[in-house]
Each structure stands twice: as structure tokens, then as C-alpha cells.
Request: fold
Amino acid sequence: MSDEVITTLYPSPTRRFLGIGMLLLLGGILIYTGLAYPPDVLGWQAFLLGMGALCLWVSERMRHATSHGVELTKGGLRGSDGEVIASIDEIHSVDRSMFVFKPSNGFVVRLKRSSSARWMPGLWWRMGKRIGIGGVTPGGGGKIMADMLAAMLKAEDLDV
Reply:
């Protein structure tokens, strides 16, 4: 992919703090409840402890994922750590309409072919032919990136 960065999308520090904090708080409450007030059925206690551990694990994944950002280059979308999210020739369309299943303050990229599943909590996810960009990112930055990507796709269609 081309190295020239057109626009970047980084997590908002406040949203990042709140997202990670809420997951940590939920995980802590679930584990505390499972240990301090154990249910009569052992299965429910295991469920509470398991869900609490899962919340703590996801909060760590989100902390790591949101230390990076998403960059739009002439070659496509990539993480600021260099991981290729989607190349421009794989992208079919961009959708940021109200009724589409997308991350908060973000947009959805539709691919021409299915790709491997990947999840960077709070930043982006990829499942099948869809990529969701956004989460703890600012809405204005997501809108700019979606519009720039749509313009690049339109210009590519006109060149063909």
C-alpha cells in the first residue's frame, strides 16, 4: 500500500477512558458479586466469574487496540501500527447511514470478497464482507474518513 497518509482517525482520550473504565467496572462488579454473594447454584457463580473475567480481558484488548489509530492512504485502510485493514481494490462501498449496523461514530466498509475475521475493540472490526470503523473515535473524524474514502472510490470508478 502507498505510504502517503490522507487522513487519520484516532480514539478520543475521554471516550477511550470511559470505554475501558466501564468494562473494568463491569468485570469487577461481576467478580465481586460472584465471590461475595455466591448464588445457590454453582453454575451461576461460574457464569458470573466467567463473564467478569471476559470483561476484564476485553478491557485489556480495548486498551491495547485503542492505543493505535486507523489511517487512510492511497492504497486503502490500515492501522497506525502498519496492519492492513483493507486495500482500496478490495473495497466495494462505504456506508455511514443511520440504519446500518455500524460502530458508534463510525461507518461500514463493504468488501468485494469475504475476508478473515478480526476485532480491535473500540477501533474497528472485520467480519465477512464488512468492516466497521469507529467506536471510541470522534464522530467528525469518522465522517471525514468515510467521505474521503467514498470520494476515492468514486474517482477510481470514473477512471475505469
